[in-house]
Amino acid sequence: MLFDTFGRIHNYLRISLTDSCNFRCHYCMPDENMACMSRAQLMQADEIIRLAEIFTGLGVQKIRLTGGEPLVRVEFPDILRRLSKLPAELTISTNGALLHRHIELLKDCGVRSLNISIDSLKPEVFHRITARDQFQIVWENIQLALQHGFGIKLNVVVMAGVNDSEIMDFVEITRRQPLHVRFIEFMPFTGNNWQSGSVLTAAEMLERVGSELDVVKLRDEPHATARKFKAVGYEGTFAFITTMSDQFCGECNRLRLTADGRIKNCLFGKEETDLLSALRRGEPVEPLIRESVLRKHAALGGQMSGDHQEVDASKIENRSMIKIGG
Questions:
Q1: What is the pTM of this model?
Q2: Cβ–Cβ contacts within 10 Å for residue 40, how many?
């Protein structure tokens, strides 16, 4: 098992398959023309499987495939089939645009839940955020996934003055559909022009919802990053990921593996350990994983305080979100 110096167990691994994406969301990929990693830099399929085997041997019980957009990787079907044979729950984070091509594959591989990013229900705002006119296909694929019985979490990055006027619209879609909307506080990453004034906190969002609907608090799962709520009489739920206003690092059980095979023990951490190079040299990887976990900071990668008003984004050393993996 993987424990850090604060007694936290780490049994959840997020693997980025690529830093390429078919969308250009400005909070994730700030430069439209940014260069993607070469094929030689990326973990190859065999290397992904081997590293995943090592992690599951160390107690990882859940693996999430991310990107970039994981479904744009040509080898995605092969990687998914092979990972599905490991003793770990398998799930995906996606922007949903290519989901219709892989529905049967996902079912065959035992995937039961999907996280789908959708930051606006208005096609024109969706286009402005993503630089792609793809709202309709994403929405149709959300409905398709529901029809096939997948549990669906909709990830909504809320940015003041951009899409915060749609909070009630997102809650409303949970009235008759078993969707789980997760409002994510806007977080700082390299190049995404984050400012504290762009953050709408969970408390502010909940106040808006509570002023119009009767809301009940639901019990959160262990290690949950989202605080769950439900509008009375609604079929679905909504939640808040409160990274900026109320960090939940004390129960963190997550590790990240970037597309170029570097382990990050925290989304906001600047420290990375190159597992891929060691693997290619035939060197032991397990000691590097354990060392990375033991170096994990108590909260927020050791780079931010608990007050988002005091954060100076220019002093945070990190990659852009697309280079880290969702």
A1: 0.94
A2: 7
